[in-house]
Write a structure and sequence with these properties.
Blueprint (H helix, E strand, L loop, with lengths): L1 H22 L3 H13 L3 E6 L2 H9 L8 E4 L7 E4 L1 H4 L9 H7 L4 E3 L3 H18 L3 E5 L2 E5 L9 H16 L3 E6 L2 H11 L4 E3 L5 H5 L12 H9 L5 H6 L2 H8 L1 H10 L15 E12 L2 H21 L2 E12 L4 E11 L2 H15 L6 E9 L2 E2 L11 H17 L7 H8 L18 E3 L1
Parallel strand pairs: 2-4, 7-8
Antiparallel strand pairs: 1-6, 1-7, 2-3, 5-6, 9-12, 9-14, 10-11, 10-12, 10-13
This protein binds magnesium ion.
The site of magnesium ion has 5 residues, from strand 1.
Length: 443
C-alpha cells in the first residue's frame, strides 16, 4: 500500500511537469521537458498468447501441441484466432476458414465459446487490477500498464515478471510481456517475446532494437501500408529510421509522421485507464409522451444501429447493453445484459429489443427511451467474434463505407427509416417529434 501511495505522488509530480510543459512556449525548454517526462516512463504491454486457443486447450488438453483454429459458421466463417502450430502454415486471424483449411488440412477447427473467453478475460483483468495502479485494457486479452516511478521501490521488470507468473499460475493461461519507455516499443517487444516470453528494451536502445525488424512489426502498419512501402523497396524498420520524415508524409499523408515516429521508437501516448463504466449512449426525451410500441421498437432499432456504427468506426466491441425507460410519472427503469463481445447491428438490436420487452411491462405512457453500450474494448476486424461469416463482414464493411461517405443515415434498416417519415402516432393521432439522435461518450 505504501509504495502505491508513493507511486501516486511521483505520478502526480510527473503530471505537474506535463502540465508545466503545456504552458511553456519556448521550444527548447519544451523539448527538454518532453524528454524528461518520457525518460520517466515505464510501460509494460501484456498480451495473452493465442488467447482463444489457450482457453480451448484448458478445456480440451488433447488440443495442446496441435494446429488449432478457432472460428465459426462452418466453411463460410473466418478465423477468429489460431495456434502457433497453425500459424506456421500461414494461417492468420481474419482469414476465411476455407482458405485456412487449404493451407493447413490437419488443423482442428473449434467453435469459439464466448462465455469461457469472457470468464477468463475478466479473471486476468481482476488480477491486473489488484496488482497495479494504472492499466489500460486495450482488447479482450491485452493490457498496457504504467509502472512509471515504481522502479524506486521494486524493479519494474521484476514486478512485471511476478505479475506474469501469477496470471499463468492462477488462470493456467500463457501470457507474454514487453517493457520499455513507451507503448509502441513495448508492444513490439511483446510480439518478439511470444510465445510465453518476456523482454525488456533498455532506455536508449529502442532504435537499435527496432532497426532489424520487418516494417510489418510496427503496430498500425496494415496490409495496405505494408504493400505500399514494400513497393518502394522498404523492408526493414531501419530504412524508415533513415528516411526523411517529409518523404514518408508525402507518401502516407498524416500517417507518415506517426509511422516515422513509431519506427524511431518515439511514442508519447498515455496509458488510458480502463473502466467498465466507460460507455457510449444515446437517449431521446419525447415532446409528447407515447404509448406506441411500434414506434418505440423502431426507435430501439435506430438507436442501436447508430451506436453500433459508432463502435465499429472506433474499432471497439461492447460486452454489455442497457436500455433505459422513463414513464410519464418520471419512474425510471434500467435493465442491462452481458453479451458476447460484439459490434454488429443484428446482435445488438435483438438484445436491446429483448431488454425493452422485459422492461416495458406497465404499458404506460413513456417519456424517455435510451440505450447504452458499456464494457468497451478494442477489437480490430471482428464484428461478432465467432458468428461472423465472410458475407456478413463484407456487408457491414460496405454499409459502413456508405455511412462514412454519405452520412450515418445513408443506410438504415427499413423499420428505423419509418421514424423519419412518421410524425404522428397512428393510434391517437398525436404528433411525434422527429428523432435527431446524439451520442454521448462517457468515461
Ligand atoms: Mg493475444
Amino acid at each position: 500500500m505504501k509504495w502505491i501511495c508513493l507511486y501516486h505522488s511521483i505520478n502526480a509530480y510527473i503530471t505537474v511537469i506535463r502540465f508545466d510543459y503545456n504552458t511553456i512556449k519556448d521550444k527548447n525548454s519544451k523539448r527538454i521537458l518532453q524528454m524528461l517526462t518520457n525518460a520517466n516512463r515505464t510501460i509494460v504491454h501484456m498480451d495473452l498468447d493465442s488467447f482463444f486457443v489457450s482457453v480451448s486447450r484448458l478445456d480440451e488438453p488433447k488440443l495442446i501441441g496441435k494446429p488449432v483454429i478457432v472460428g465459426g459458421s462452418g466453411d463460410r466463417g473466418v478465423v477468429a484466432a489460431c495456434s502457433y502450430e497453425a500459424r506456421a502454415y500461414g494461417v492468420h486471424s481474419a482469414m476465411p476458414i476455407r482458405m485456412a483449411r487449404k493451407l493447413c488440412p490437419d488443423a482442428i477447427i473449434v467453435r469459439g465459446d464466448f462465455e469461457r473467453y469472457s470468464y477468463y478475460s475478466e479473471m486476468v483483468t481482476s488480477i491486473v487490477r489488484e496488482k497495479v495502479p494504472v492499466y489500460e485494457k486495450s482488447s479482450i486479452d491485452e493490457f498496457y500498464i504504467d509502472m512509471s516511478g515504481m522502479d524506486r521501490f521494486y524493479g519494474c521488470y521484476d514486478y512485471a515478471t511476478e505479475l506474469r507468473k501469477s496470471i499463468t499460475k492462477e488462470t493456467g493461461l500463457p501470457i507474454s510481456f514487453g517493457l520499455s519507455q513507451n507503448k509502441t516499443v513495448s508492444k513490439v517487444a511483446t510480439n518478439e517475446a511470444k510465445p510465453n516470453g518476456q523482454m525488456q528494451i533498455d532506455r536508449g536502445t529502442e532504435k537499435t532494437f527496432l532497426a532489424p525488424l520487418s516494417i510489418k512489426k510496427i503496430p498500425m502498419v496494415g496490409e495496405k501500408t505494408y504493400t505500399l512501402l514494400r513497393s518502394m523497396g522498404v523492408e526493414k524498420i531501419v530504412t524508415l529510421q533513415l528516411m526523411p520524415v517529409e518523404l514518408l508524409q508525402q507518401v502516407l499523408g498524416e500517417n507518415g509522421l506517426v509511422i516515422w515516429k513509431k519506427a524511431n521508437g518515439l511514442d508519447n501516448s498515455p496509458v488510458e485507464p480502463y473502466s467498465e463504466r466507460k460507455s457510449i449512449s444515446t437517449e431521446e426525451t419525447f415532446e409528447q409522451d407515447t404509448i406506441d410500441v411500434t414506434y418505440l421498437k423502431a426507435l430501439i432499432v435506430k438507436m442501436s444501429e447508430k451506436l453500433a456504427f459508432q463502435l465499429r468506426s472506433e474499432k471497439k466491441l461492447t460486452a454489455c447493453v442497457s436500455v433505459k425507460l422513463r414513464y410519464s410519472n418520471f419512474d425510471t427503469h434500467t435493465v442491462q445484459a452481458r453479451i458476447p463481445y460484439s459490434s454488429s447491428d443484428h446482435t445488438l438490436i435483438s438484445r436491446a429489443k429483448e431488454l425493452f420487452e422485459k422492461l416495458y411491462e406497465r404499458r404506460m405512457l413513456v417519456r424517455l427511451l435510451g440505450i447504452r453500450f458499456s464494457h468497451l474494448v478494442g477489437g480490430g476486424h471482428q464484428i461478432n467474434l465467432f458468428d461472423d461469416s465472410e458475407e456478413m463482414i463484407n456487408l457491414y464493411q460496405a454499409m459502413d463505407k456508405m455511412r462514412m461517405r454519405y452520412g450515418d443515415t445513408a443506410v438504415q434498416r427499413a423499420i428505423g427509416t419509418d421514424l423519419v417519415c412518421r410524425t404522428f402516432n397512428p393510434f391517437n393521432g398525436q404528433t411525434l417529434s422527429p428523432v435527431p439522435l446524439t451520442i454521448k461518450n462517457e468515461k
